[in-house]
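Input record (one chain):
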Amino acid sequence: MLQMRPGCECCNVDLAPDSQDAWICSFECTFCTNCVESKLGGRCPNCGGAFSRRPTRVGGALERNPASTVRVFKPSGCAPAA
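The corresponding structure, as predicted from the sequence alone:
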C-alpha cells in the first residue's frame, strides 16, 4: 500500500492524497511537479530512478487507508541524480 506522503521532499509543498501534482519513484520518494521538472530532471535524487505520477486516494479508500502524516524533507539533497 502506498504511503501517500504529505509533502514534497525538495520544497516541502503540501501534496494532498488527491493531488495531481505528486510524483513518486519506485521507493515512494515523493516530489511535486515543479521540482521534478525544474530541479530534478525527471530522476529521483535519492535512487536515480524515474518518476511516475502518484495515484490518488479518495473517499472510502482514503478513510479506510489514510495517507501518511510523516513528512520527509531533504532540501540539501534536492539536486539531480548523478
